[in-house]
Amino acid sequence: MVEGFERYGRGMGARRYPWLTVPIGILVLIWGGYVVVTNALEGDWLVAIGVGWFSLALGLGGIGVGFANRADVQDFVLRDAAVWADSDEPPPDARVHLARMRALPYPLVVCAALFALGMALISATALLQLLGLVPRAADDVSTGTLLLAAAGSAVLAGIGGWLARQHATRKWRGGALSRRPEGVALGEREVLVRVPGYDAEIAWAHILAVRPDAIRDGMAPVFRLELSPEAGIRGDAQLIPAGGYSVPTDALYSALRWYRAHPEARHELGREAGGRRLADWCRLARKLR
User: Fold this and answer.
1) In the prediction, which pLDDT does 200 show?
2) Other C-beta atoms within 10 Å of 180: how many?
3) Which single residue of 42, 101, 184, 217 has CA 20 to 30 Å from 123?
4) Pairwise CA distance, residues 81 & 192, whole Å
5) In this predicted structure, what is the pLDDT of residue 198?
6) Cβ neighbour number for residue 132 with a 10 Å cutoff
7) Cα-Cα end-to-end distance for the chain
8) Over the range 48-86, which residues count as b (16 or more CB within 10 Å of their CB) and which as e?
């Protein structure tokens, strides 16, 4: 066992996704292409467009779920701490080791966008029929049904569009040096947290303990950082999501606990020595999954 490595908790670490969804997604795309071409040649463009949208969204979704299986195969990356600065003042640490927040694979981002577009079209079509601007799809379709279809599809379109935008933005920020990436960064003097819903800069000296916890009735695992009053954070605690990073959960948990308990080793952070230790924890965490 590598020195300092700790498991975060059973059932609360990295999530596994079935690779079987990749060939299923490819088969759905092939089937959809065949049906689209067949109906287009027969002049049935409405069916061709509908099946094309459905098969493309479902096929890309399956491929994306399979690719998500490799979401946490990366190591901590060395970054300039200035990217994270909230002010013009130089940050306490020049370099930090970053556990980046991961985004959905591109096929899932496109799937969410296609889903949002399809729902928006359904909502618009139902609304136009409700207003009498286009003929109703069937004479027995009631006003209540059209109203429900328009409102429900609009809500689903908003959710799909928001998901696509959030993850596309996270991918762009994660790969651009000119923008502040999202994640947890470890420096010699501070822990910097930049994740959705959490934004903090905490000195190592103010962290009294790191332990596993969960919120939302145990459905959302988190790291709980117990803090001294000098940290200036309400409740003397900082919660950090335990999942969703490009590095294994166990590796980030080990890093937070090890460097809190070993202040003499924090000089490694932001340097190659720290990178080697963190990489060892990442390799072991992936091996033990």
Assistant:
1) 85
2) 15
3) 42
4) 9
5) 77
6) 8
7) 14
8) bebbbbbbbbbbbbbbbbbbbbebbeebbbbbebebbee
- Nearest to residue 210, comparing CAs of 243, 252, 178, 179? 252
Q: Taking a C-beta distance cutoff of 8 angstroms, is the pair 66, 107 a contact?
A: no
Which residues make beta-bridge pairs with 194? Answer: 183, 199
Q: What type of residue is 120?
A: A
pLDDT at 176: 43
State the pLDDT at residue 14.
43
Which residue ranges in the chain fall short of pLDDT 70?
1, 10-18, 69-72, 83-90, 170-180, 216-218
Distance (Å, rounded) from C-alpha 45 to C-alpha 61? 24
Paired sense of beta strands 220-227 and 207-215, if any: antiparallel
Residues 6+ apart with CB under 8 A from 69: 16, 17, 18, 19
Contacts of 13 (CB under 8 A, 6+ apart): 7, 242, 243, 248, 249, 250, 285, 289
Q: Can you tell me the distance from the alpha carbon of 222 to that of 268, in angstroms, rounded to the nearest whole number?
A: 25
* 50, two tokens: 């509908």
Q: Return the amino acid letter for 141.
A: V
Given the DSSP bridges, would you call strands 183-186 and 95-100 parallel, antiparallel or unpaired? antiparallel
Tokens of 169: 């933005």
Q: What is the amino acid identity at position 122?
A: I
How many Cβ atoms sit within 10 Å of the Cβ of residue 101?
20
Residue 18: its pLDDT value, please?
A: 66
3-state secondary structure 150-180: HHHHHHHHHHHHHHHHHHHHHHHHHCCCCCC
Give the single-character DSSP code of 92: S
Q: List pLDDT tens digits, range 67-115.
A: 776 656 788 988 887 766 665 666 777 889 999 887 778 888 899 899 9
